[in-house]
Each structure stands twice: as structure tokens, then as C-alpha cells.
Amino acid sequence: MRALKLLGGAGTPDLGLLYARLTGAALLLAVHGLPKLLHWRGELAHIDDPLGLGPGITLACALFAEIVCPLLVAAGLCTRLACLPVLFLLGVSMLLVHPDWSLEQGQFGWLLIIVFGTIALAGPGRFSVDGWWSRRRARDL
Q: Does this entry carry the keyword Transmembrane helix (predicted)?
């Protein structure tokens, strides 16, 4: 309880949302985003293109959803909006690119859908740029 008082009296839902934002974003960045960015030439050669946009556009969209959006989610900036490209990319991946995967094979993707879906529904919580901004606006009104 003392730790919660040190954090400004915030309840555990805010801490839980902070934890979900930071860990979900870190996993998506580390496992998908950064490897694609570091090896983008190789990715262009073998990236799946289920929507027929072309490999360049598909890779650019994937990099946006797997690098820019997780950084926004981690900061809690435009959080709900930043979750949407991630959820779209994961949905396309799980339903169109890997429809033959068993639940066990796709468990990482489904868990990321759960994490980012929860954040999109619940919002970023108090410990976020969005939370700070809404408290400031409410105070100024």
C-alpha cells in the first residue's frame, strides 16, 4: 500500500495498464519490429503480401505497426489509436497469412491481440501522456 501512496494514490488498474503497455510494446518491438528494421532488405524478399499492396508498402505498414505504434503505446500517447494498426496487422497475420497455424503455433500472436485489444478497450491509464494530458485539460477547464 505504501508503494501505491508513493505513486500518487493510483490504484492497481493504472499500474496494470502501464505494465501491459510497456511489456506488450517491448515484446512487439523486440520480436518483430526491430528485426524487420535491421534486416529490411531480406524482409522485402520474403514478406507475405496477403492484401496485394506490394512488398514495399506491406513492409512499410508492418514497420509502422511494429515500431512506431508500440513506441506510442509504451509512452501512452494516442494510445487507443496506436493500438489499431497493431491489431489490424496481427489480425491479417493470424487470419490471412497463417490460417493453418494451430492455437499453439499462433499463441504469441493471439496473446499480443489480447494485450493490445485490452489496452485499446481500457485506455492507457493514469501513467501515460494521454492520462497526464486529460488531467491537465480537466484542471484547466
A: yes
Residue of 86 and 138 predicted with greater confidence: 86
Domain residue spans of the chain: 12-140
Residue identified by cell 508500440 is 70
Query: In what helix (H) or strand (E) does residue 107 lie, and over which residues does it extend?
Result: helix 107-122
Confidence of residue 134 (pLDDT cuts 50, 70, 90): confident
| Amino acid letter, 93 | S
Q: Indicate if the alpha-carbon torsion angle 27, 96, 58, 80 is positive or negative.
A: negative
Q: How many CB atoms lie within 10 A of CB 96?
A: 11
* Residue 110 neighbours by CB distance under 10 Å: 13
Given a contact cutoff of 8 angstroms between Cβ atoms, the answer to whether 25 and 74 are in contact is yes
Q: Which three cell numbers stand for residue 60?
A: 512499410
